[in-house]
Fold this sequence. Notes:
Porin, 14 strands, 68% strand
Amino acid sequence: xxINKLSLSVILCLASGASxxxxxxxxxxxxxxxxxxxxxxxxxxxxxxxxxxxxGLVSGKYSxxxxxxxxxxxxxxxxxYLSQSSVVSARYATTDHQDLYALRGEYIFDSRFFIGGAxxxxxxxxxxxxxxxxxxxxxxxxxxxxxxxYTKLTLSYSTYEQxxxxxxRVPYTSLTTGNSxxxxxxxxxxxxxxxxxxxxxxxxxxxxAIASYAKTEEEFxxxxxxxxxxxxxxxxxxxxxxxxxxxxxETQLAINADWxxxxxxxxxxxxxxxxxxxxxxxxxxxxxxxxSQGDYEHYNESYDNNFNDSDSFNYFKIGTSYFWNFSKYxxxxxxxxxxxxxxxxxxxFGVAINARF
Length: 357
């Protein structure tokens, strides 16, 4: 499975030894201590690395919770979820070739219905295509309902449009030039169900189920001129014309379980099924620009292909995470995760420093 975009959320990594798994807030109780453990602000900076992507990802995030979040005697990772507080947040993340800017907000009514929205911008620069970069603006709206203090249902819609054009030298050769235009139109829908089960002996179990559907339409038009032979230091060139369009329909079903052994330490397992349906056409015409010094008729080539195909993959993951609250305001977070995509595997490891005040 290839990572081709920034993750819109940073994976925070690893659980240390079980001897540190005792939550530092679980021993506090009462109104006074509960007030001391309530925060409105959360800031975090973290780093993620994976065996699949050597770039590494650095992320910073700030959130403001209007009603305040009580983290007394609850899993520290789930304190913001269980608080049911309206929130606004901003995030920045970066790799060697991409930058992510994101804003998100959610408002919860007294009736426990909520509405929210998000905006993100991903900018990409490719060193090997030094004339090529692109921006992707994604908009999302969501709404849902909290059935009780532990259960939440969210319905979401997201969309983005992306256009890009290039002209000039094509990478790897100084003799090849080209022009291209491409456009992408994406619309996605999802339903997400979350439910927390508190336990008496251990902290509890968080269950998450997601079903989503997305449709992406892509179009590409391009032409290029490239050398096909060199006769007496005089290059013979050919022209290539490419037109393609395709529609991709993606269906995703996922379920994840996080078992909180303590309020600080969790073990997780997840499964995801993704199916893609492809439909479109690809047309290419190659013609010699001139053949005055030779017969290059065999370079006249034409490709016309209509395709209708599908593929799918199964994604399994296991991981463990730790949220070490070592002072009143500052915590360290870590997680390690092993993912399996059909016959391939990928290891993710990340750490972060978290401040709540």
